Amino acid sequence: MWMTRLTAAAALVLALATCGDNQSPYEPWILDPLTPAEGLWIRTPEFDVAPGAEIQYCYFFQVPAQTDGTLWVDRIELALNPGSHHMNLFRVKTLRGLKPEDGSPVDLGGVQGTEIREGECWKSPNWADWPLVANNQQSSIDNPIFEWALPTGVAQKLDAGEMLMLQIHYVNAATQDTPFKGRGGVNLHRSTDGDTMELGTLFATQQNIRICRSNPAPTYGGGCAMPQGTHTVAAANGHFHSRGKRFSIFAWDGVSTTRPPDSARFYQSEAWAEPDMATGLNVQLPQGGGIYWTCEYQWSEPADGCAALDEKDPLHANDCCYTFGPKVETSEHCNVFLYYWPKTTDVTCF
Amino acid sequence: MLLAARGAALAALALAACSDPPAPCLGDCTLPIELAPTGLREGDLVDLADGGTVDIRPPDQGGFVIYVGVRAKNVHARGGSVSGALRGLSGGPTLTIEERPAAFVLRADGWAIPESAFQDQPNLPVCGPVPGPADFDQTAWQAVLAFRDSDGRTASTMVTVQPRCWGWAAVDCQCSCQFDQTGPCVPDDGDASVDAPLAIDAGVDAP
Q: What's the predicted TM-score (pTM) here?
């Protein structure tokens, strides 16, 4: 009898241990710090993500002084504790409501920086013209580190003194779970083999979207033209929230006024929480063309009812509509993150 | 055997009851789809004739867009989509393109019009990072507009539009819309509209 009880108690302890509370033992990811000769590294502090919470933190830091004024990066490592919705690294350009000098000092390991939690860090117009440097949406326990070696001869160019911003979004609610603490890390490895082809990035978003009870399976699509020249896509990923069912990116000829054929599609993902980051694509975009992307959605009943959605619906349609916004629980996105070479300019479409 | 057949029949009935009814036709769907261009002007949904002006506005995320679309007749509007593209008057490269679901309301005269001028007309990005060959707000462009109804029938139309910076962000808009941004930005006083707003108050929800 006592043996049975002991076995049951042990099973209970084991079950509780696997439930994922913040006290559970967790084997943290490790990224080795880089010497200045090896590149640039940062680690965010650990932070709590309370049950029911969605948080977004912004970390500002400058690219340290470089011998020749430039840091060429040809390998990127991005690491996240489980539960992250996204981590984006931007170049800071026009300052609006989100400013590095308004942040609190923070030790980021390889550099010192400032940190702004919530508030302006949620407001996307603040970084509307801030070019993307790198992004990661992969934060599973089994696969916490995303590593990308850029194509041969290609590197990301960062200038000494350039201000960067790392943004991390964590969710611990109905749609995503943060079982431990939040934390992110970045290693930007210096190119040492003479790469001179600069990597460019493209960020595109469909912002005026509605996924409503009365029209539960809408599709939104849009095109984004590249600057003049010939461009090769090296990597891409899509981003939406839990109503997102299929994300597709196509090569677009820059002339057609309709969606490109399926044969032009080079990216597709049906995983909203951990969308695939496709690397090694080597897709030649048509001269004078660009990309076309589509987001297909399926409406679902919100866990907490429709009141919050109806309240923020600009049309006041009372139709339980998810509209554009950063909160995973109550809004939707339709964003493209794309990396190409050779860089002509940073491209944004919205 | 009989029970199994009855069960299958009941299951089929139940499934049929769960699926959406077919979208009703707005007009006469044995006739070709009719389209007429629409756009947003000074905050109102208006019919567009060639050369008509449309607002350039700053949406939530940043940047600038114009809103151009269609009103339609003889369509199954529910579950349909509308697309728009912008290019030069002589054709050539398409500068911007967008496709979105179309929610329409039925007007008393039998035309289905966009329920929302912002949500149910293509939002076409212009200015700023969009690689235009000239000042967006000082140039006329060709808008190519298409409609696909829930039966997969399509129709398209074209209209020449003149985007204009309008509203609280007009100065920022004019500077952002300059093709040559190497010199100083000198905003002008803009222009006035003449098109009449579409009456939507007589409309009923298109199913």
A: 0.83
